[in-house]
Amino acid sequence: MIRVVLPGHLRALARVSAEVQIDVKGPVTQRSVLDALEAQYPMLRGTIRDHVTQERRPFLRFFACEEDYSLEPPDTPLPEAVASGAEPLLIIGAIAGG
Can you give the pTM of this predicted structure? Predict the structure, then answer.
């Protein structure tokens, strides 16, 4: 079971608490986690990734085990601590400005 922490605006949209738990079949990658998240919470489709290109939306970042995975290819395996459920995948709303 994979743990995912969503930013406040996505928690409100999905009507969930700070952390959700999802099952991922196969390798645990950004793509597989987001596919499972969108399947379990269809109201999140298009909010984290673009509908067509599947690219990460601007101002959202992905962190796992204190490492930024935002610019990694979507099929890069996530750390074992995330795959085992010991650590969550954090989806963070980035802030722009000076």
Answer: 0.91
Is 98 contained in some domain? no
How far is residue 8's CA from residue 85's CA, in Å, rounded to a whole number?
21
- Determine, yes or no, domain membership for 22: yes
**Whole domain around residue 55: which residue ranges?**
2-93
CA atoms within 13 A on the CB side of 50: 8
pLDDT in tens, 40-87: 999 999 999 998 999 999 889 999 999 999 999 999 999 999 999 999
| CATH classification of the domain holding 88 | 3.10.20.30
